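Render this sequence as a predicted structure.
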Amino acid sequence: MAQLGLNQAPAGTIIYHNVAPRSDDTEARVSNAGERLAFARLATGVRVIGVNSGCAFAFVRDAAEELRWAAVAAEGSQFRSRDLFPQAAGEIALGQPAALAGDIPKSEIPDVPANRITYVDGYGNLKTTINFSRSRARIGSVVRLSIGGIEHEAITSDGSFAVEQGQLAFAPGSSGWKNGQGLETRWMEVFLRGGSAWEVFDRPPIDGTVEIIDSV
């Protein structure tokens, strides 16, 4: 959402996401209840419609000029993405006033979790929430990373092909954006050139912690 919504986008862009694991409550569900559908209008003009699950809206929270709930039930169907949410999303896209409900206080949207794996791409690269400016790693130095209790050394690189084939690297990835003041956010990733860092670290889960042990 942030990658598409906070970078340059065509006028009228609407982002819709439906990542809804129903993990906000571990107790038994009544009527297939789950996380609520939410809406954000970003400073870029991009509109975002999506389920407020986990830290999904954390990355766009501070750039949101409007944060509101969608006026649609969060329960009543096992397949909310088929039976409930599409109509609500369409009404929001058309700008119908009744499609939106109350404001969401920004205090209810969590911070971006620190030092976590946010997702694993198709190459097995581990995208993290370690900010490039905070990684404190000198380009070309060797760092020891610990993920899920497994440790490996990686070379701190400034680009995917600045390391040899088969070398584990820790580098700023392609995920990032600039805020209204022109300040850039760029996230670090762990990748294995010619292989899968996800496999090397024994397939760590999303939201797993990435720890920088030390520099060698």
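Summary. Residues 91 and 97 are 8 Å apart (CA to CA). The first strand starts at residue 14 and ends at 17.
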